[in-house]
Structure formats: C-alpha cells, structure tokens
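Tokens for chain A. Residues wanted.
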C-alpha cells in the first residue's frame, strides 16, 4: 500500500496564506508596540526554512530597516548554512552580522567535553573524525535509544549504541552551541533595543526539539503554531529564494550530515506533520495508518512516541519554579488581553 504524502498534506494542512501572513505580522507589530516596547527585531538566521520564514515575516511586519540578522556558525556548521543565511539577508535587504562562535565554544570546553564522551565509546576517535547521534526504537514500540555514528578521515563509518552517561554528556556539550548563540542574540537585542525572534515551528515546539535557555528562549515565536509543511508553503508564498525553500531540514549541530528525523523525530517532517495533526485533531490510529500507508500497530507506536516526547520534554517549557506565590510581577499575558 502506498500513499501520496503531498496530497495528504494538502488535504489536512491547507490554509489561507495571505490571511496567515496578515495575522502574524499584525500581532508582531502589536507585541512590539504594546508589550515588548522594543524598536525592532533580531533574527538568528541559520539558512534553514524556519529562521528564513521568521525573518521574512519580521520584514513584512516592521520593514527591513528594523530587522537585524545574525549568522552564527561554528566549526561543525555546514558551509551551506552560512551561504544560505547570507543569501536570505541580502534577499530581504536587512542589516546582518556574521559572528563565528567557535572560539567561545572552544574556550568553555564544548568540543573537549563532547570528544571525551565520544572517545569513551570509540577510543580511536580523534581530530579529523566526524560524528553524529541517531535515534531508533520509538516507532516500533520500543523505548527510544541512541547510537553514536563516527566517520574516520578515510570516509569509513562506524556505529555503536550510546551509554546514557555518554549520551547526556554529548548532548550537554552540544547544547552549548544553542546557548551561546542565544547569548549573542540577546546582546544585540539589548544593544539595539530590539526583541529576539524565536524560530521553532509547531512540531519542534510540541515535541521539545529545542534547548532550554538556548534556541527555546525568545521574546516572540511567530511560527510556533505552524506545522513544518506550512512554514515551507509560507516561505514560498513570501517569495524566498528557491534554494532556501527547497532546503532539507537538518540539525546543523554535528559534523556529520544529520536529518532532524534521524536525530529526534519519529518520521520525516511531512509524515510527522500529518501524525501530529491527526493526534491533535483526535483522529484514531486507523486514520493515521491510512494516511501514511502503514499498519495500525505502527500508527499506535507513532502516537505513543509523540505523547512520550511531550511528557519527557515538558520541563523545557517551564519557567523557573518559585516555592511560594509572589504577588506583583506578571510573567505571562495572553495577547488578546
């Protein structure tokens, strides 16, 4: 049994793009004026579809002269990311700055801590080797587990299952990257009296695919209600360069090429959008099975994997917990109030 994924996406996730742009940009203007009281917007541009679409929406909302772009590569970043990020900034006509964060990461031990954990699993791993982490198990009803993939300078790849301690240390070390980037973003936001734009889409936001106090931190998250396929559609509607609109989602965190589904999600992004939409709209596993041309048993596993990730990453959404109720400060106000 096969299915046309693009047709299913069009069926389930079709939306009025012009109305969505108007809704997002008007709310961004309102937030800047009445809540955030900032003069403009900062967007860190990775060259990916989410940050590109967010930057384009920022320009639509307040104009190119009040949007500042940041390109923040490090030693494991793909050259394509910086190239596409610069292409986008020039396409939008915004001021931008390229700042290599590798020296800062080196100084705080990001690469050292990571490599020490990798060498526990692969003692032969050394300078010139590449690495990535891959996930497996959740879509087959098992507990998710992680494997480490390394590649030597001759191009040979090896993989082993990661121990918990090594996994946590590698992830903790690489999380430095998102946190340093966010520090740079907020520096420029303070310098310019701008607000920081967060760029998670709905699946990332729902599934906790972000780093707390890293890419999860922002003043405004304009596309967090949009599924990934909707972000792609909006980017094309906004007339962004074809190379950006056709870019395959990657983590751009590890030195080996790595898709987001390989590292974290249960499925490639189109199928993941369909699965999350189906669960959010109360559709039974049989509905998802039909849409993805999979067994109902596998659809149940996918739903379970989504729910498990929601539970285990809920803490990423929390603010610092106070032990007593404190009168005075307002920590959250719905936009409509």
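Reply:
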């Amino acid at each position: 049994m096969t299915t046309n994924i693009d047709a299913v996406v069009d069926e389930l996730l079709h939306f009025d793009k012009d109305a969505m742009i108007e809704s997002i940009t008007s709310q961004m203007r309102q937030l800047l004026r009445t809540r955030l009281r900032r003069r403009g917007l900062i967007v860190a541009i990775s060259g990916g579809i989410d940050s590109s679409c967010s930057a384009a929406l920022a320009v639509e909302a307040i104009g190119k002269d009040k949007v500042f772009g940041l390109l923040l590569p490090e030693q494991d970043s793909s050259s394509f990311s910086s190239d596409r990020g610069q292409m986008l900034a020039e396409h939008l006509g915004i001021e931008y700055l390229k700042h290599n964060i590798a020296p800062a990461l080196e100084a705080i031990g990001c690469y050292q801590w990571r490599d020490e954990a990798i060498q526990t699993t692969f003692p032969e791993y050394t300078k010139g080797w590449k690495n990535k982490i891959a996930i497996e198990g959740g879509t087959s009803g098992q507990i998710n587990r992680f494997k480490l993939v390394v590649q030597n300078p001759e191009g040979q790849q090896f993989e082993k299952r990661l121990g918990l301690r090594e996994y946590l240390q590698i992830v903790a070390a690489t999380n430095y990257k998102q946190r340093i980037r966010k520090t740079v973003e907020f520096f420029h936001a303070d310098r310019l009296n701008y607000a920081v734009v967060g760029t998670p889409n709905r699946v990332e936001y729902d599934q906790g695919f972000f780093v707390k106090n890293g890419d999860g931190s922002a003043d405004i998250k304009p596309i967090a209600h949009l599924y990934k396929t909707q972000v792609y559609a909006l980017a094309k509607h906004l007339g962004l360069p074809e190379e950006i609109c056709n870019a395959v989602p990657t983590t751009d965190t590890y030195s080996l090429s790595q898709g987001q589904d390989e590292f974290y999600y249960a499925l490639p992004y189109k199928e993941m959008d369909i699965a999350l939409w189906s669960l959010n709209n109360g559709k039974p596993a049989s509905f998802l099975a039909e849409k993805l041309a999979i067994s109902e048993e596998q659809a149940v596993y996918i739903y379970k994997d989504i729910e498990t990730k929601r539970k285990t990453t809920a803490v990423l959404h929390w603010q610092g917990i106070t032990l007593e109720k404190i009168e005075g400060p307002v920590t959250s106000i719905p936009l409509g109030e």
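Strands lie at 40-44, 67-71, 95-98, 130-136, 145-151, 157-161, 194-196. DSSP finds 14 helices and seven strands in the chain.
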